[in-house]
């Protein structure tokens, strides 16, 4: 994709994001775009950064490695895929945020590796609100007990919650999923289980990001609609 084509896509996305913010009475600054570059080249990822999309989402270290080495600190790296415990060593210290914390064995390994490196791992808890068997993430009733356990892991900070809605031909049907994630975050903060407020809601993708924004998304993960899909 040429830079000119990318600029056109970016303008269209920006118009849609701004309109969704206006409809829901939110400031445009309250929603940040994560450019999901897992299906595109290093050149396209660089174009994204050059156009101001400095939050980059990837889901496999072996695929992102050349991009990470080339772009480095010019981007803020978000790990958005399912994370296997034996791959934690590749992620900690390189990705600013992990969006897919969904089990205690993973939390223990993240905490262990982060302590070794002397860093804090910013994580989002992934919830499977829709209950789809094909999706990762914990059930919503597991959230509070999980957070209670996470309090014992000093190298993990819970930055927010993440979910993936079912793919729907009519995006409006995803609204209850996004609304519930926001409610769960607010309920978690009301309980004051943590010594800080959980802020982020990572939800909404190319097909449904406008609905997610209307329901409170702070981070939307945009791949095809923004950067396209190559190969």
Model description:
This protein is an alpha/beta fold and 231 residues long. The protein has one domain: TIM Barrel, CATH 3.20.20.10. 41% of the residues lie in helices and 16% in strands. The chain is built from 9 helices and 8 strands. It has an 8-stranded parallel sheet with strand order 7-6-5-4-3-2-1-8. The protein is globular, with a radius of gyration of 17 Å. The N and C termini lie close together (12 Å).
What's the SSE blueprint?
Blueprint: H1 3-23, E1 32-36, H2 42-50, E2 55-58, H3 61-71, E3 76-79, H4 88-91, E4 97-101, H5 104-117, E5 121-126, H6 143-150, E6 156-162, H7 175-191, E7 200-202, H8 209-214, E8 219-222, H9 224-227
Parallel strand pairs: 1-2, 1-8, 2-3, 3-4, 4-5, 5-6, 6-7
Labels describing this entry:
TIM Barrel, 231 residues, 9 helices, alpha/beta, 41% helix
Question: What's a concise summary of this model?
Answer:
With 231 residues, this protein is α/β, with parallel strands linked by helices. The protein has nine helices and eight strands.
Helix content: 40-55%
CATH architecture: Alpha-Beta Barrel
Q: What strand order characterises the main sheet?
A: 7-6-5-4-3-2-1-8
Report the uncertain regions.
none
Number of DSSP strand runs: 8
What is the CATH third-level topology name?
A: TIM Barrel
Strand proportion, as a percent range, falls in: 15-25%
Q: How many distinct helices? A: 9
Element pattern in H and E:
HEHEHEHEHEHEHEHEH
Helices and strands: which structural class? alpha/beta
Task: Determine and state the CATH class.
Answer: Alpha Beta
Average pLDDT, all residues = 95
Largest sheet: 8 strands, parallel
CATH superfamily: Alanine racemase
């Amino acid at each position: 994709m040429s830079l000119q084509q990318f600029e056109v896509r970016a303008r269209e996305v920006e118009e849609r994001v701004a309109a969704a913010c206006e409809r829901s009475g939110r400031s445009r600054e309250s929603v940040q775009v994560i450019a999901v570059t897992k299906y595109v080249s290093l050149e396209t990822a660089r174009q994204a950064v050059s156009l101001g999309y400095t939050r980059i989402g990837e889901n496999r270290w072996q695929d992102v490695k050349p991009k990470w080495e080339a772009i480095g600190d010019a981007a803020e790296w978000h790990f958005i895929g399912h994370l296997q415990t034996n791959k934690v060593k590749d992620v900690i210290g390189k990705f600013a945020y992990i969006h897919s914390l969904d089990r205690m064995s993973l939390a223990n390994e993240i905490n262990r590796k982060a302590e070794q490196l002397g860093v804090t791992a910013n994580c989002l808890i992934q919830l499977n609100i829709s209950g789809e068997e094909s999706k990762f993430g914990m059930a919503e009733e597991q959230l509070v007990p999980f957070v209670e356990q996470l309090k014992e892991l000093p190298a993990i900070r819970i930055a927010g919650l993440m979910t993936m809605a079912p793919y729907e031909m009519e995006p409006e049907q995803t609204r209850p999923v996004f609304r519930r994630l926001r409610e769960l975050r607010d309920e978690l903060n009301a309980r004051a289980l943590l010594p800080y407020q959980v802020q982020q809601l990572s939800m909404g993708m190319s097909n449904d990001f406008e609905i997610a924004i209307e329901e409170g998304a702070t981070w939307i993960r945009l791949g095809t609609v923004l950067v396209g899909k190559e190969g």
